[in-house]
Design a protein that fits this description.
This protein is of the alpha+beta class and about 240 residues long. The chain has a single domain, classed as Fumarylacetoacetase-like, C-terminal domain (Fumarylacetoacetate hydrolase, domain 2, Alpha-Beta Complex), CATH 3.90.850.10. The protein has helices at about 40-45, 120-130, 135-140, 185-195; strands spanning about 15-20, 25, 30-35, 55-60, 65, 70-75, 85, 85-95, 110-115, 120, 145, 150, 160-165, 170-175, 200-205, 210-215, 220-225, 230-235. The strands form five sheets. The protein has a six-stranded mixed β-sheet, with helices on one face. The chain has a five-stranded mixed β-sheet with strand order 6-18-17-13-14, with no helix packed on it. It has a three-stranded antiparallel β-sheet with strand order 10-7-16. The protein binds manganese (II) ion (MN). Manganese (II) ion binds near residues 33, 117, 204 and 207.
């Protein structure tokens, strides 16, 4: 688009995520998600064994930024009776590429954040049964809460970080990023074979066991050791 080109209405604002320690924000390009990437979660969903990684997407504007130290309101979405949390480590891509080898992913990673892959589980289940796309179960408005992005150099050992989610102060999910079936490097290798990654892409890397429902009034606290935790209240 040239500067002189006019638009029939104002372009939507870019989705941006704050970066720890910087005034500048991270502009979101796409949101990719990995399915069933922790063995204990794959089992609780009725699957076993290591299958090739598979991916789905959420719209970029499904990201709901949760700032440090605040409790962000998360509206209970329409059409569902079974609104599930999935705590996930999010990888933020700073340099794009296609067919990125696992050995070379470091230079492509900008940083990491804590995210939630919120899911309308009943609708996802209906779509699975019918062999239909998951969009309505996974890609709805505000389905991708995310905390501030910590640049990779300051994020510590995320590959071995504890990851957990509490609801109303009670543990619901607790695992370690080291339990990923497909680790961060392998995930990026597979993902970049299917899509050309771009700066601004976010990758929700999967969730450990213990997924379950929340209702209006519940407070969720999500954390990955070394990153800024997030807190949301379902409203
Ligand atoms: Mn997930």
């Amino acid at each position: 688009m040239s500067d002189s080109e006019s638009l029939v209405f104002a372009a939507p604002p870019a989705t941006t995520v704050p970066v720890v320690g910087l005034a500048a924000c991270f502009p979101v390009h796409r949101i990719y998600c990995v399915g069933r990437n922790y063995e204990d979660h794959a089992k609780e969903m009725g699957f076993t064994g290591r299958e090739p990684p598979f991916f789905f997407m959420k719209p970029a504007d499904a990201a709901l930024v949760v700032n440090a130290g605040v409790t962000a309101p998360l509206p209970y979405p329409s059409l569902t009776q079974n609104f599930h949390y999935e705590i996930e480590l999010v990888v933020a891509i700073g340099k794009g590429g296609r067919n990125i080898a696992a050995a070379n992913v470091r230079e492509h990673i900008y940083g990491y954040a804590v995210g939630l892959d919120m899911t309308r589980r009943d609708l996802q289940g209906d779509m699975k049964k019918q062999g239909r796309p998951w969009c309505i179960g996974k890609g709805f408005d505000l389905s991708a809460p995310i905390g501030p992005i910590t640049p990779a150099a300051q994020a510590g050992d995320v590959e071995n970080a504890e990851i957990f989610l509490q609801v109303n102060g009670q543990d619901r999910q607790r695992g370690n990023v080291s339990q990923l079936i497909w680790n961060i490097a392998e995930t990026i290798e597979h993902l970049s074979a299917a899509w050309e990654l771009q700066p601004g892409d976010l990758i929700y890397t999967g969730t450990p066991a213990g997924v379950g429902p929340v209702v209006v009034g519940d407070v969720m606290q999500g954390s990955v050791a070394g990153l800024t935790p997030i807190q949301l209240r379902v409203v």
